[in-house]
Structure formats: C-alpha cells, structure tokens
Amino acid sequence: MKKSERPTPSDSTSLSRRTLLQGASAAALLSVIPRESNAGPAHRVALTSAQPAAEKSKSFPEKFLWGCATAGAQVEGNNTTSDLWALEHIPDGMFKEPSGDACDHYHLYAQDIAMLADLGFNTYRFSIEWSRIEPAEGQFSNAELNHYRRVLAACREHNLTTLVTYSHFAMPLWFAEKGAWQNTVAADRYARYCERATKHLGDMIDFASTFNEPDIPQLLNWITFAPAQGPSLTDMFQQALVKARVALKTPEFASFFAADPQRTRDGLLAAHAKGKSAMKSVRPSMPVGFNLAMSDDQPASTDSHVAEKRADIYGPWLEAARTCDYLGVQMYSRAIVGKKDLPPPQGVELTQMGYEFYPECVEGVVRYAAKEARVPIYVTENGVATDDDSRRIEYYRRALAGLKHAIDDGVDVRGYVTWSLLDNWEWMFGFGPKFGIVSVDRATQKRTIKPSAAYLGNIARGNSL
Ligand code: BGC
C-alpha cells in the first residue's frame, strides 16, 4: 500500500498512520496446558496432540470456532444516542466522516447473518449497543432488547455460536456526559445495564464479553508518530477531549478514547468485575471474558522496554483474565519496542492503516496470551485493511499457518474470528480502510462477496487448512 493511499485525517486532531488501532494489534508467547475452563462442554475441544499425525498437519481442533466480527457503531447505522454520534458531528472534530447509515446492519442483519453462515462460518461476534438499550439513564428499551433477541435468533437459525460484546467503545451519551468510566459510579451503572441485558438476552448468548479492547487507553500511549519523539496518541486525544467538551458544552464529558487513561482504566477494571458478576448472577453458566488488543511485541535491538510495555498495558488485564472463562485476543501487526513502539522498519509492506503487513503476529500473540492468562484463548479479531483482496488472502494464509503451529504445540486456542465481515465505518478514519471480506455499496447497501470470503469460509467449513 502506497503512503498516498492511506486514510488522511480531517484535521490535526485526527489520527494518521500507525494510529489509533495499531494498538488494536499486538503481543506474543508460549504453549501452555490449559486449566479447566468454565466454558460449556460444547465448546471444550480436544488438544491436537490427541489427533493422528496425518490429520494434525491440516485440521484444527474439533468444535473450533470460525467466525466474523462486527461492532454496532461500525455497521448498524444511526446510533444517534451514543457518545460517538455526538463526537462525529462536531465540526472539524476527530472523525473523518460520520457513520450515518453505516452498513444498515440494524435492518439488514438477517441477510448478513445468513450470508456469513452460507460462506461456511459457524460463529458470529457482534456487539449490543448500550446506547440503544438504555438511551436515557435508567430507562431501558424493551424494543431495542427485542431487536437484539431477533439478531440472536437469526444466529440460532443458522446454527451460529454467538460471541456478544456488551461494550465496544461506544456508550450512551448521557453516560459520557457524566464522565464515562472516570465517574466513581460508572461500574454500578454498567453493571445495571449488564444485568438487564443478560436477563433479556442471556439465554441465547454463547460467550459474553464485558469489553472490547479495554487496554487501548494505555496502548495509545506507547504509539508515537513517526519518526518518533512526536506527540503520543494519548496527547492527541487529550486535545480532542478539550475541544469536545467545549463543543458539546458538557465540562464533564469523557469518552473511551478521549479521557484520562489511568482513571479510565481503573473505571473499566471495576466495571468489568461488576459487570461480569451481574451477568453471572443472572446466568451463572454463561462464559464471560473480554477482548484484549495486543501486538506481537518484539524487542528493538537496543534499549527495549518490552517488559515495561507489557506490564503497563496488559498486566492488570491479564490478571483479570485469569478469573474469566476465556480470553479473546485481537491483533493486527507487530510492534518493535524501544522506549516506545518504533515506526515499521523501512521498506516493509504497509496496510491501509499504516501498520506493517505482519500476519505472523497471530502466532506470537496467542503464545504469549495463553501462557500469561492461563485460560482458553479465542482470536476474536484479526485481519487486514487493504484494497487488494489478494493480499488479504495472503494475510490469512500466513496468519492461520502460524496459528496452527501454535495449536500443534499445545497452545489452547479454540477459535479464530476475523475482522471483519463487512467493509465498515473504521472510527476516526471513516469508511476509507477496507477490512471486510464482503464489500458494501453504501448508496444501495448491496453486499458483494470478495474472494477472501470464499477462501476463509472454505477453511472454516472444512475446519482444515
Ligand atoms: C477494533 C475494531 C476496529 C479494528 C480495526 C479493533 O481495534 O475492535 O473496532 O475496527 O480493530 O482497526
């Protein structure tokens, strides 16, 4: 991908290359014999070591989950009661363009889910949107809860396992106006929502996640703009926060990205614990975990701070993962870590996000995560932003070869979910980056299946490379 083809920020507060969700990539490590998990028997898998040698070379473990992921704010369209909707509409704000109708998945979910199943996948990961379910504080919408029940029913109809994220970055505007995760009662507010949503939907959820990538606020601080020494992304988001508070005339406003990172982490950790308890109090057998953003962290040749980076970003979350039923890991590239993450090496292929094209990150991350978390691992996001679908196929080929290698070594990975089913709204970058295995004509909402969808779907259907 040539530099000129990368998304361009709309202003100085927008994020350019290696941006924001390079974070949404990351880390590494070694095989571990899993301890018993609480995940239901249907999802327990035999380790590949029990399989005959010939089979072992190509097949994935029995009952392996193969899926695609989406997130409400990125595909549903018109999430008008969320904090992001407000931020998207600030003139010269941090978003390149508003999400608008997005992929109109809110109305087209049934056909999208049928398409996913037809392609050969057995799993759908999506988020329920808190801002729709509780648009005003304490006022829950049964109509919206019923909407998500219908989405879950469509999954059931196609025998899909459901991975449901309760919070994927976006939040109700009222919650953001009260300081979001920084507010001391945020965890209680979140737990109330978790309880209510689980009561309505829990019987149809196979795996619940409290948070998507709650480590992002810390991860951003390790990413600087090339050629180094520039402001960190955290600094840029702080500027965006000041601007948003003025524009929205709410001095307490905070968001997932734009907030104090330390207070946000404290709030998210507390909310994870209380949210998980609330879910379990309603449905004790529902497996609960969360999805961590990781990069395959590799030491720079001199002055590497890899251990410090890992302790800072992942440390508390890996500890939290040890009391979960599973851990979802999400990675897109590697990071070569000096004092901070270094820019990608000269001359390497870059993706539309400005990351190094590095599918081997999957193997590195699952080995590290499994060793540290000591619970079953699911790859809940991995993929590549590119306009050249043949590069996506190559990315999957290498990513899955690495994943298989780790599994053959005994690493307890039980699923691979790609980001993303659809070309969607990529947060600050708008609709530029193409992560989807299916393209979307935004004028007509017509879906077109790309060759990479057939490639990955065939692997999923055969459970074999
Ligand atoms: C996020 C997605 C995002 C993807 C690609 C992950 O960080 O969970 O919402 O679109 O990375 O950048």
Write up this protein.
The protein contains 16 helices and 12 strands. It is of the alpha/beta class and 465 residues long. The chain has an 8-stranded parallel barrel, surrounded by 6 helices. Strands 6-8 form a two-stranded parallel sheet. Helix 8 packs parallel to helix 11, helix 14 packs parallel to helix 15 and helix 15 runs parallel beside helix 16. The chain is globular, with a radius of gyration of 20 Å. The protein starts with 52 loop residues before the first helix and ends with a helix. Bound molecules: beta-D-glucopyranose (BGC). Beta-D-glucopyranose binds next to loops. Beta-D-glucopyranose (BGC) binds next to loops.
Give the topology, please.
Elements: H1 53-56, E1 65-69, H2 72-75, H3 83-88, H4 105-119, E2 123-127, H5 130-133, H6 142-157, E3 161-165, H7 173-177, H8 186-201, E4 207-212, H9 216-219, H10 233-248, H11 261-282, E5 288-293, E6 296-299, H12 306-313, H13 315-321, E7 327-330, E8 334-337, H14 361-373, E9 377-381, H15 389-408, E10 413-419, E11 438-441, E12 446-449, H16 451-462
Helix pairs in contact: 8-11, 14-15, 15-16
Q: What integer value in Å does the Rg equal?
A: 20 Å
Task: List ligands, each type once.
Answer: beta-D-glucopyranose
Tally of alpha and pi helices = 16
Please tally the β strands and state the result.
12
What is the H/E order?
Answer: HEHHHEHHEHHEHHHEEHHEEHEHEEEH
Give the rounded overall mean pLDDT. Answer: 89
Helix content: 25-40%
* Structural category: alpha/beta
C-alpha termini separation: 27 Å
* Major sheet description: 8 strands, parallel, barrel
Strand content: 5-15%
Question: What is the general shape?
Answer: globular
The side-by-side strand order for the widest beta sheet comes to: 1-2-3-4-5-7-9-10
Low-confidence stretches: 1-50
